[in-house]
Each structure stands twice: as structure tokens, then as C-alpha cells.
Amino acid sequence: MTAPLQRSEAPGDAGVPLADAPTPVGVLRRRAGTGHTASLYVGGAIAAVLVATALLSLFVHLGDPNATDLLGRLHSPDGAHLAGTDELGRDILARLVRGVRWSLGIGTIATAIAVTIGATLGTIGAWRPGIVRTLMVRSTDIGISFPFLVIAVVIVAVVGHGFWPLTLTLGVVAWPTMARVIYAQARGLCEREYVLAARLAGVGGLRSLLTHVLPPLVPHLQVMAAFTFADLLVAESGLSFLGLGAPLGEATWGNMLSASRAYLIQAPWMMLGPATAIVLAVLAANLVGDGLTARDHAKRSRSAA
Amino acid sequence: MSAMAGPAPLASPSPDTAARARPAMRLLARQLLNRVAQLVILLFVISSVLFVLLRLTGDPAVTIAGENATPDTLAAVRQQYGLDGSQLHQYLTFIGNLLHLDFGSSLATGQDALGMVGAQLPATLRLAVAAIILNALIAIPVGAWLGSRRRGVARESASFLITIAQGIPGYVVGLLLIQVFAVWLHVLPSVANGGFTSMILPALTLASFQVPKMVRVTAASVAEAGRADYILTATANGASPSTVVLRHALPNALLAVTAMLGAQFAFLLSGTLITEYLFNWPGLGLLMVNSVQRLDFPVVQAAVFVTAVMVFVVNVVMDIVFELADPRLRRSGA
Amino acid sequence: MRLRQGLSAIALGVCATLVVAACSSATTPQGSSSGGANAGKPGGQLRVGVSALPPGQGNPFSAIGSPSVYVWASIFDALTTVDKTGKVQPGLATSWKNIDPTHWSFTLRQGVTFSNGEPFNADAVVATVNYLTSKEGKATSVGGELSMLASAQATDPNTVEITTSTPNPVMPASLCVMYIPAPKAWAQLGAKGFATQPVGTGPFVANSFTQNSVQLTANTKSWRAPKVDKLSFTMLADQAARTQALQSKQIDLEIGVSPDQMPSLSSAGFNVVTSSPQQIMSLAFRQTSGGPIADPMVRQALNYAVNKDAMNTSLLGGKGAAPTQGTASNTFGNNPSVKGFPYDPDKAKQLLQQAGYGSGLKLSADVVVGSFPADAQIYQSAAADLAKVGVQLTLTQITFADFLSKYLPNSWDTPMFGLSWNGQPTLQASRPDTIFSCLQPKAFFCDPTVKDLLTKASTEFDENQRKQTLQDVATQMQANPPALLLMEQIDINAMASNVNGFSADNRTVHYENITVN
Questions:
Q1: Which residue of chain C has the CA closest to B105?
Q2: Is B289 in contact with A149 (Cβ distance < 8 A)?
Q3: How close C496 comes to chain A (CA, Å)?
Q4: Chain C 302-341, CB below 8 Å of chain A: which residues?
């Protein structure tokens, strides 16, 4: 009973696999043999498409996301504009493509920040008892209790709107949860007999940490990273929604969603475009996380048997 | 997360249950005191950090004085609201007042800041509890059904839908609900009006933030519990599948679910921010958004303080429930 | 197992208890009823949705203009009002005359009482002026606006003499912002107490002022008694939510509609009313901090580069207007022979070339959005137009609080910023013009010629002469533009088809005339 809980403790982590692994595509499952790999494949495939689009847009002109056309406002999807035009006549598809760069960029970097800080602090807290551990646990307490909105507003007020302030905000908000979960996992690992034995035998603290504690943590980190990425993607669009995110007119999914609210009746395609994009990206991240969890789970039960 | 926060108590080796109870109670009491001390330090640090950060966001005197203000007006406003004097002096005054839970008056309305927070808090609590209940009502049956199913089309397509649902941001759900039920069908109000009906859409929206996750946790727990020995025994003894689920798997799964519900509370509170903004629900979230934008520092301080206390208390309660409930955890070490 | 079941039940029971506790202690927000009970009866209820409630609640000295005026116009009256054409109309004063440059005499309306029974007379006016000239009063918005007031005296119960510290020809118009509170109630409650229990002479009495709504009932004894029984204001900051509330019949009148919603609201049977608040939206130039925009040729070029008519047609449904100068066409002092800057990107490029920026220019501007119809789109559209002539304008969105922090001390880090000023409430060109001149404390733009002209106009009692001087200001500002003029804005309001009698002068809504069938 405690095993599922350990993983579901962190509210950002729903990486508990269904009994026989979730497989949205039955065919892929059969071909792949084991369900969790199919999850990984599908998720990975979607992610690959998104990343490829982002990279491609850096070199190839895929439509101008900022070209306004006052006479062509709010046009429904047609031959010239596959996803329609927005309130300033800009091509929505071009903006969605530009938005991939922004969202993937922010999501990846913010997740990286959160994972790095969270994992480091969590492991240190688990490794060193006493004041270090207390400090770490208390600071994550504070980090978790601190209101997300205030952090966002402060950072925007001090640093301004933009890619880096937003990334910073999201990284700062996400690391405490990450630290908590890693701390919980690392605690268990640090108390394993072979680690204690190694310490008694005189193996240096850092070496012991690197060879015994960190490697088993990696799968957990991967899973957490995937789900954190998904959460931060949604959070970024939420911040833009409240006007604290991307600069005015910047082509980001969050901005686009925020602008689409006033046009839900006249131009529903304005909402559908970015909503689909966000759902796809989050889906990819969740599938990858699922797949990783299931694979890790399978590996564990195989080794336990 | 919260279960791992404190040291698990060790049971005394005495076989006599009565004798075992008293040290356990003392341990519980000590734990509680420990927690209270933690809370005090937490609140102090948060309030102090917030004091500094808020002052980085802007100068509230200008918001009060308005766009027509002359430098003289500004100076007068500063004096009137205690915004003159050095930052250190202001900080010390703030801490001094904090000790009697005096957050001062709202810079915008002049009313007592803590009072304003207290007046708007019940609305948020109502919404949060409604969302938790809705969450449980939807997620538990669906999750239980999902977790007890064997591999098949029904389960695969259901889990696919759940995964997609998890990717839809909560406020998008809110927007869609408003569009369909309020604007097109006119059956539910989209703006808070004190009646019960106006709570439905916001509660649904807030619940949607967490329902997919809850379904998956429930399904996994039920599935996991379903593989336990006592289930096999029950099935072998001829119990029907539904009895197995309802009477054996589900109660055990509920424990995980309950713990997760408690952990959700903190995230629910951040979800209420956007939800209250969308539906104009007069709760703490809306007050926070407005106060932060208006640079109404006393109200922000009071709101954050109250929120931190609430989250902490809920976590502690959940921890206690969890520790008392699961004897395996109580005997931890094993 | 049973223990665990029980404890799970307890945990859920705790949740249930919270529900009960929250429900019983909740002060349920007084809200809009479905209106069904009142429909058809004479009276009824008018529910108004606004973007913000007065930050100072019922304290009429804490702010000027929108959004506070929408609520206060239902509770208070001032000595005068200014109508759409700029003419000063009687309010609580029926007539006035100028005795000498610093003395005015006002004859007051008789038979008016405050909603708490106190009589309205010269003493009430004197008490108000005394407060505004006191230390505490001078620090308020109204006190700052009416800084020319020196003292007031009651020569008889219905006549009051007001003295100004300097000659001020437009003083009667300026008094339209001075709402008169009941003097005894004010003295008793003080500013803080009065804010939640305001007492005025207007058509409605406020019963409750909460964070998110104001509930009022009819004051049948008022000199302008209303036709509806109840009035309520609900704060719906989010524009989309506000329109949704109107569409789902939770409010009857929406203040502040987006231009893109006009067609769908009209076709759904709602009455959409536009009016000109004489608001000119612009990007102000911080000429005092130097840089490329210190050159008047650059500033003219930027004005030629933006297609204002296209923005008006596409974004405001043609209901606004391309501004020719810093004041609207019906503002006193507007110069009809100043034609402004028509759209001419070639000329813009030419001017930039002459000024030495033929290869391009980088500029940035801080702007606040969400205040005016389609403002975010107007700014972005202008930036797109500027890009076509080689000017890269980066727009940064800031909050209004941020704006004030930068505006008052002129501590921007960008060479331009979004600024919208209007002639309200006096509808005099001098007001917006002063903002863009050296006379502004912490001026961001200074033209000595304009300064001299404005100083001259401020003491000219002869209307024609004053008009001429103000028109000269407009001519000078054409040659030396202080701002990139973007749009003459509009106010858009919408109401249900059963709401009749709506009218507003300079955002002062005449609630007493409204009926809800």
C-alpha cells in the first residue's frame, strides 16, 4: 500500500500505472510486446514532432506570426489560413508554430531548474541528518506555502515580462515539490543496508552518494521531470491568462488562449488552436512519464520476483 | 509527501495494548507541539520574505494617491498610511503588529485587513470543499471501475480519455462550461450571486484541475489492492467481483485516496485563484489577485498568512489520520 | 480493516464538517436575483456590471472620474455638472456668478435633503470646502484637483461664496467633481467610517459596500427620485466575464463592452450605446530624456507611419475617430483647422531619412492594456505599422499600479509610454494639454511656447480669448508633437432590451431616469 503512495505523494505526480500499463493504442501494444513501451513510443513520437517543428521554425520560414492584417481579422480556417486568423488578422497556425519554441523552451528550462535544485537539495537533505536536513525540509515547507501568484508578480515587477522572467518564476515555484519527493525517495535509499555498510567500511560520503544513492533515483527523476514539465506548461499559460506571462503580442499558446476568451462565440478557432497544442504537449509529457513509470515498475517487480 | 515529513513513531515492545497506548499518545502530543513550533517559524519567515518582496513590486502610495497626484499629495499620503520612514522601521513595526495578528488596514478600503480576509474566506472554503466532494464523487467510482477492469477496449479508451483530460488546463474547462451552460443554454449562472446554483460551474471547474489525477490514483490503488492476497482469498471463497471491489479493494484504496485529497488541498487553493477570477467568486483568491494588483500590501500579507495556516493544518490533520490509520506505517521500520 | 474504513470515513467527515461550518458562517454575497419577482411591477431592480468599484468605497473625495463616478453618481450630487457639449449645468447649485477674479457666488437649490434627513444648505457646502482645504483633505484626489480652493462662506442658508487662491475661470466646471456628503454624518463617522456608510442627496442610498458589490435602494425623498426600487453594482473585472454575465441575464447594464462584441450583442437583442468620452489614446514621448525622439522630425514621422483610420474602421467599428490633435473635437479649445497627421508611410520614411534614421530605429514603450476598447490591439497594430517604416517598437505590458509608480515621478526606462488623457470632467483643452507640457510636475515633455500659452489661458476669463489661446497650443503641438496620437476613444455600454432611459454625460449616468420593465 505504501508503494503507490510514495509516488503519488507529490501532487504533481500521478505516475501510478494501471495494473497492466495504460496503452492508448492497442495495436502498438501488441507489436511492442509490453504496454509501457507503447506509451513511451507514442509520447516520444508526439514530443519529437513538436521538437522538430520548433527546430525547423528556426531555419525555415513557416509563416509570419506577427504580420497583422486588419481587414482579414477573425477569419475562420480556410485555404490561406489553415487555422484561421486572430483578432489582428495574424495567421494562427504560424503563431502556434512560433509558440512551440516558447512553450518547449520555457517548459524544458524551468523543469531543468526545478529538477536540478530539487534533486540536489532533496538528496542533501536525505543524506545529512540534523540541521542540514531540517533546513532543507523547512525551506521546502516555505516554498510550497508561498503563493505562486505573488512570486510571479514580484518577478515580473522586478525583472519584467519575457522568456527568462517566466522561466525563473516557474522554476522557483516547482522546485519545492520536486525536492520533497526526491527527499522521500532518497531517505529510503540512504537507509538501505548496503549504503550503511559502505559508510561503515569507510567509503567516502560523496562517492557513496554518487554510486549508491543517485543511480536508483534517476528513474524517479525522469518521471517527475515529465510530469513537472506538463504542469509547468499549463502553469505558463495560466500566468499569461492573468497577464503576468509573455509580453504583449508575443506568439505563445498562453497569450493566444487569453486573447481567445473574448471571441469564444465569434471565433472559437482562436481557442481551439492553442488548446489543442497545449493538450498535445501535455499529453506527450504525461505519456512519457507513464511509460517511464511502468517500465521502472516492471523492472522492480522483475527484480523483486 | 506529508507522510514523510516527520519521523515515524516506533511502537513500544510491550505486548500489553493499554501500556502501549500511553507512550504513543505522548509521542503524538510531542509531535503536535513540534508541528506548532514549525508553523510559527514558517509563518514568521513567510511574512518577512513577503514584506521584502512586496515592496519590490511597487509603491502603494502612488496607487492610493492616484494619477492626479502632486508630489505634495504623495508625501501626505505616505505619512497618512505609515509608508514614510525607513524600511527597517516599517519592518519592525510590521513584525511587532504581527505578534498580535494585526495586519493593519487595507490601503485600498481602509478596513481591517485580517477582517477582510476572514470575510472572504468562507466563500473559498465552500468552493474548495465542494470541489473535493465533486472530485471524490466523480473520481472514486470511475477510478474504481477502471482499476478493476481487465485489459480491453473499454479500459484502454477510458484511460486514453483520462490522459487527454489531464492535459486540458482547468481554466479552459471553466471557459467551456461558461460558454455552454451559461451563455448558450442559460441554465446555470456564470457569475457568483450567493445562490447554490452559482456554485456549480466554479466547483466543477476547480474539481477538473485534479479529477483526472484522482481517477488514476484510485484506479492504481484499487488495481494494486486487487492483487493482494486477501482479495484472492475472497474471490476463491466465491465472492462476486463487485463485492470484492466494494467491500475489500475499495476501502483499502480509499486510504490512499484520502491522503491524496489532503495533499490536493494546497493545490486546490492555487486553482481557486483562476477559478474565482473567471467566475467572479468573492473568495480569498479573487481578493488576493485584486490586492496584489492594487499593491494593497496589508491584505496580501493577511491572505498569505491565513492560507499558509490552513494548508499547514490540513496537512497535519491528514498526516495524523494517515499515521493512525495504517498500522503498517505505525510499526515502520518493518 | 474496519478501523481503516472508519478513519477514512472520519477524514471525509472532517471535510463535511468544513462544508457545514463554511456554509453557516458564510456571509452570502447579496446578489442579483433572477429578477422574476420584480419583473412587470413599477420599480424593479437595475443590476449594473462594472470593471471596478470605487477603491475608496463611499468616500467621494478619494478619486475622480471612472470607475468611481459610475457608483457615486447614484449616491451624491455636486454643485454643477458638465454636459456632453462642455456646458456647465446646474446641479445642487442653480446659478452662479463671478464677483471678482477670485470670488464666486453660488445660489443653491432649495428643498433638498440628504438621505438621512439632514438638510442641504450653504453650511454643507462650506463644510465640504473646509475639509478639502484642510491638511487631510488636500491629500485626497479631489483636494488635489481643487487645489485652487481657498475658503467658503455661507452668506445665507441658500447662498455660498467660494474664494479661490488664484484666479481660475473654469472653477464652476471643476466643481462638478466635488460631491457633497452629509456634513453631520461625515463629521461623526470620519472618512473611514463614511466610506462604508455614505450619505448623499442622490437618487439611491447605499445599503452595503462589499469588496465585490454595492447594494442600493431608492431614496424616494431625493430631489431626483429614481424610477427603480433597487440598484446594484457588481465588480466584474474581466471583460469577457462581464459580457457573459449580461448575456446570461445576470446583469442588466454592462459598463465597458469590447467593440468586437457589439455585433453579436446587437443581434441578440441587447441595446448597445456608444459615446465619446473625449479620450485620446496615445504613446507619449519622453522628450526630456533625450534620444532619437527628442527630434521633432522623428516624432512627426512616427505619427505619419500609423494608419489610424484603418484601426478605427477595423477595431472600433468606425465609432471612434483618428485624432488630429491631443484633444477631442468637441473639447473647448480644440482647433478645427489643425488637421493632424494622415497616414503617409512614404513621408514617414522620408522624414526618418532626413533625421538620420534611414537605416532603422529601435524604440520601446510601456503600456497598460484593458482600459479602453481594443487598446491592446491598437498598440500592437501601431507597432506593426511602425515596423513597415523600419521602426522596431517593443511593447511591454505593465499593470496600472506599475504605471502610476513610473508616471508620477517620471521614472520610466522606456522612451515612450502609453498615455490616455481626456478633457473630463471640465472638457477643457487645458487639462490634457497641461499634462504634455512643462507645467506638469516631473514633466516628460517641455515646449516653452506651449508653457507660455497655457499659463496665459489659465487666467483668461474672456471665453473667446481663452479659446483662441488654447487653439494656438494645438497649432504649436502639430509642429512639435508631444505624443504619437493613436485613437479618439469611445465608451461602449450595453443593456438588456427592457432597460430604458439610459443616458450619461461624461460618464455621469443619470440613474434617476432609468426604468426596467
A1: C192
A2: yes
A3: 19
A4: 310-311, 313-315
ipTM over 0.90: no
Cβ–Cβ of B256/A1 closer than 8 Å? Answer: yes
Residue C472 and residue C429 in contact, taking contact as beta carbons nearer than 8 Å: no
Max distance between CA atoms of chain A, in angstroms, equals 78
Contact list in A for residue B153 (CB cut-off 8 A) is: 26
Dihedral sign (CA C457, C462, C465, C466): positive
pLDDT at C28 over 60: no
Mean pLDDT over each residue of chain B, to the nearest integer: 77
**What CA–CA distance (Å, rounded) separates C273 from C494?**
6
CB A100 within 8 A of CB A46: no
Residue B172: how many other CB atoms lie within 10 Å = 24
Say whether residue B231 is in contact with chain A using an 8 A CB cutoff: no
**Rounded-to-integer distance, Cα C403 and Cα C375, Å:** 15
Whether C345 shows a pLDDT value over 90: the answer reads yes
Distance CA C186, CA C193 (A): 8
**Grid coordinates representing C498?**
427592457
Q: Provide mean pLDDT across the span A1-18.
A: 30
Spatial CB neighbours of C224, under 8 Å, sequence gap ≥ 6 = C77, C202, C203, C512
Question: Closest by alpha carbon to A87, among C388, C315, C373?
Answer: C315
Are A236 and A107 spatial neighbours (Cβ–Cβ below 8 Å)?
Answer: yes
Paired residues of C392 in beta bridges: C362
Contact C402 A157 (CB under 8 A): yes
Q: Parallel, antiparallel, or unpaired: how do β-strands C279-285 and C416-422 relate?
A: antiparallel
Query: Which contiguous run of DSSP H or E holds residue C436?
Result: none
| 8 Å CB contact between C467 and C327 | no
Domain A31-64+85-304 fold is MetI-like fold (1.10.3720)
Res. C10 pLDDT band, cuts 50 70 90:
very low
- Please tell me which residue of chain C has the smallest CA distance to A158: C402
Which residues of chain C neighbour B287 with C-beta distances below 8 Å?
Answer: 211
Percentage of chain B surpassing pLDDT 70? 81
| Contact yes or no for C394 and A68 at CB 8 A | no
Dist. CA B285–CA B298, nearest whole Å? 15
In chain B the domains, ranked by start, together with CATH numbers, are: 32-98 (no CATH), 114-332 (1.10.3720.10)
In the complex, which subunits touch C with 3 or more CB pairs below 8 angstroms? A, B
Query: In degrees rounded to 5, what are phi and psi of residue C3?
Result: -60, -45
Give yes or no for residue C273 having a pLDDT over 90: yes
* CA atoms of B255 and A113, how far apart (whole Å): 33
Is pTM beyond 0.90? Reply is: no
Q: Do B191 and C238 touch (CB under 8 A)?
A: no
| String of DSSP letters for chain A | -HHHHHHHSSTT---PPPTT---S-HHHHHHHSSHHHHHHHHHHHHHHHHHHHHHHHHHS----TT---GGGTTPPS-SS-TT-B-TTS-BHHHHHHHHHHHHHHHHHHHHHHHHHHHHHHHHHHHHSTTHHHHHHHHHHHHHHHS-HHHHHHHHHHHH-SSHHHHHHHHHHHHHHHHHHHHHHHHHHHHTSHHHHHHHHTT--HHHHIIIIIHHHHHHHHHHHHHHHHHHHHHHHHHHHHTT-SSPTT---HHHHHHHHGGGTTT-THHHHHHHHHHHHHHHHHHHHHHHHHHHHHHHHHHHH-
Of B57, B166, B219, the CB nearest to A286: B166
To the nearest whole Å, the CA of A255 is away from the closest chain C CA by 12
Task: Annotate A236-250 with b (16+ C-beta within 10 A) or e (fewer).
Answer: bbbbbbbbbbbbbbb
pLDDT digits (tens, 9 = 90+) for C155-174: 999 999 999 999 988 899 99
More confident residue, C479 or B60: C479
